[in-house]
Amino acid sequence: MKKSWCRFLVPRYTASGHGVLLLVIAMITAVLVAGCTIPGAGSPSKISTTVTTAAPTPWSGSWDSDWGVMVFNQNGDQVTGTYPHDNGKIKGTVSGNTLTGTWSEAPSYNPPNDAGDVVFTLAADGKSFSGNWRYGSGTGKWDGIWDATRK
């Protein structure tokens, strides 16, 4: 069993009251000389504070839309979402206040009949968006308008 160095030394000097006092002073001095000090007690040091803020995710949340309640999740510039009409899904990329991506629905989730392009523009106040959708992918005409307000 390992003995404490303090327990080892103190009993030898208990015969004299002065001896104990001298031993305590010697021990304190040894600790201070050995460099056992309180952190920061010496010269002041600069404390670095880093504040991490999450990137804004203005598209995240629930939206009342033309196709039912949509739920979006934004991670960086990527947005995924769902809506109830035919178990719909949205995937897209944000640039500024514009979300450009695709919609897809059951049963196949594939173009040209069950998927296509979407472009949504978020209002300046972040409380609504307006956009267009089309069947398939490309540069053809838009098939409809898709609007929503934040819940």
Describe the structure.
The chain is α+β, with helices and mostly antiparallel strands. The chain folds into two domains: 1-52, no CATH class; 61-150, no CATH class. Helix content is 15%, strand content 36%. It is built from two helices and eight strands, in the order ααββββββββ. The protein has helices at 5-9, 17-33; strands spanning 61-65, 68-75, 78-83, 88-95, 98-104, 115-122, 128-133, 144-150. It has an eight-stranded antiparallel β-barrel. A hairpin with a 4-residue loop joins strand 3 and strand 4 (88-95). The relative contact order is 0.11.
> What is the structural class?
alpha+beta
Q: Tell me the number of structural domains.
A: 2
The largest sheet is:
8 strands, antiparallel, barrel
Radius of gyration: 35 Å
**Helicity, as a percent range:** 10-25%
Unreliable residue stretches: none
Strand tally is: 8
The largest beta-sheet arranges its strands as 1-2-3-4-5-6-7-8
Order of helices and strands: HHEEEEEEEE
Content of β-strand = 35-45%
- Total helical elements: 2
Mean pLDDT: 81
- Separation of the first and last Cα atoms: 68 Å
> What gross morphology would you assign?
elongated
What would you say about this model in short?
The chain is 15% helix and 36% strand.
Write the layout of secondary structure elements.
Blueprint: H1 5-9, H2 17-33, E1 61-65, E2 68-75, E3 78-83, E4 88-95, E5 98-104, E6 115-122, E7 128-133, E8 144-150
Antiparallel strand pairs: 1-2, 1-8, 2-3, 3-4, 4-5, 5-6, 6-7, 7-8
